[in-house]
Design goal:
Structural class: mainly alpha
Strand order of the largest sheet: 1-2
Helix content: over 70%
Number of domains: 2
Oligomer: single chain
Mean pLDDT: 87
Number of strands: 4
Bound molecules: zinc ion
Radius of gyration: 21 Å
Length: 257
């Protein structure tokens, strides 16, 4: 255990000297470097950028497609983090649903008659606790790199990086229900036995959208900490933590039933 910790510290030490750094908001009047979220210079109070009062939802969606780093910058610099709560709820629903399906599909426990509502509530709280924890973790990591960041900015950019997962819930979940009814979710019987090809197609689509969301998370982390490898490692760790919270939560809920 000690040795593992040492490797991580060593790796972080080397990442700290990455050469791919881009300067943050540099003040035109006094050359001071300011945090990405800053509106006025901390040294001389000069204005650093134009004010962004609200998030323009459709602009951010199209920016997430063409330039996720700029999308994340705009979210960070917006005074009000619009739609973040609604998006959190939909992402939380989809992710708890996936946790439930995985649990049923791999029969992590044989209690298939588990209470669906309880399971979703459990997954949902796990998602929120997980997201708060990840945003705190990220602010600590950025402090390690001597970068000033805010908790609410991390939370907002993470939720926006789940837009592909939110799209899955809005577009693919109705298709799953139409094609398979409830057995896509309960795996009783397995949808792969009943409609083999459509099942694989759906799994591949879900996989691709999750991959896309993962890449967005790397991009939004990069926006804050400006290091490629560190952003990738941080995202990996974060996804493992979030996944574990959701899956383990479901697993223990099954056992408790
Ligand atoms: Zn200044």
């Amino acid at each position: 255990m000690f040795q593992k910790k040492w490797i991580v510290i060593n790796l972080l030490y080397h990442l700290k000297s990455d050469s791919d750094l881009k300067k943050y908001l540099v003040c035109k009047s006094c050359n001071t470097e300011n945090p990405l979220f800053a509106y006025t210079c901390k040294e001389c109070n000069a204005f650093l950028r134009s004010k962004i009062p609200n998030i323009d939802f459709w602009e951010i969606i199209s920016l997430l497609l063409e330039s996720p780093v700029i999308a994340a910058e705009k979210i960070i610099q917006s005074d009000h983090k619009n739609y973040v709560i609604v998006l959190s709820i939909i992402a939380g629903l989809k992710i708890s649903l996936i946790g439930w399906v995985i649990n049923n599909a791999f029969s992590l426990s044989n209690a298939l008659s588990i209470n669906f509502l309880l399971s979703i509530i459990f997954g949902f709280s796990g998602f929120f606790i997980g997201m708060i924890f990840l945003s705190l973790l990220a602010t600590v990591v950025s402090r390690y790199f001597v970068i000033q960041t805010r908790f609410k900015d991390f939370y907002s950019i993470y939720i926006y990086s789940f837009v592909p997962i939110i799209a899955l819930f809005l577009l693919l979940t109705p298709v799953q229900i139409a094609l398979f009814g409830t057995y896509w979710f309960t795996f009783n019987p397995s949808p792969f036995i009943i409609k083999n090809l459509p099942s694989y197609v759906i799994v591949v689509i879900e996989g691709l959208f999750f991959l896309w969301s993962f890449i967005l998370t790397v991009a939004v982390n990069y926006t804050q900490i400006r290091r490629y490898i560190a952003s990738l490692i941080l995202t990996l760790i974060e996804w493992i933590i979030l996944g574990s919270i959701i899956i383990l939560g479901q697993y223990f809920l099954h056992i408790a039933n």
